[in-house]
Structures
1.
Amino acid sequence: MLLSIRKFGDPVLREKGEPVTDFSPALAQLATDMLETMHAAKGIGLAAPQIGQSLQLFVIEFLLKDGEEPEFSFTLDGKNVPLALAMPLVAANPKIKILPDDEWLYDEGCLSFPGLVGAVARQEKVRLNYQDAQGQPHEIIADGLFARCIQHEYDHCQGVLFIDRMEKPDLLKIQTKVKQLKRETLARLKESGH
């Protein structure tokens, strides 16, 4: 089922998500709906606050064409596995540790900020500890775009948005559009009585 993606200005995007405690089939269904919504919006990651659920939960999926290799490396529970075995990633109660490495700038976008992009500095490598939709614990160590995506979605679960980390010159370039998006979102929320 497609869910509505909350846009910048919606207060839920600034809330720190609550821990996931219910690992029932309802959580697996929510994750499935989030993935379907993310794919429809042409994204690679989506966090629960972005669909109005203030939870420590996000999904990530890289869809590669046949024979295409990912431009990053990762291990799942200490093993090198094919990307298809790690995807889609459903991460509940995520904890990340930045591993000592270089920061790199990359233009990021966000489904809650349609059409807006800007350079964000993030660490090259992270360790993610999380529970899957059934509550089983896992660990992923990833670099490159996978690490960046994990950091971006983790931030959403903490109420932190990519504009908070964006390089100042890039933020200044889109500031007017960001303010306009916030005004439109707040007006829509007021209209709907939220």
2.
Amino acid sequence: MINIDYGKIKLNLNKIIEEKNISKNKLAQRTEMQRTQLNKYCNQNIQRIDLSILARLCYVLECEISDIIEYIPPEE
């Protein structure tokens, strides 16, 4: 079986939180997320992305989804 590298998805949530100068506690409260759940998103420790959470993050952080999610192609 051939192992193909498709690249990876990176979440830039920590960067945006810092740029927007908002605490994780405040962001968790405004997006109606538990702090532990928000930390999982910040630490790239999720298996599946919840679209409603992404919508809430974009709304509260006043950003585009492309600001949060980045596709990193495989190295040739």
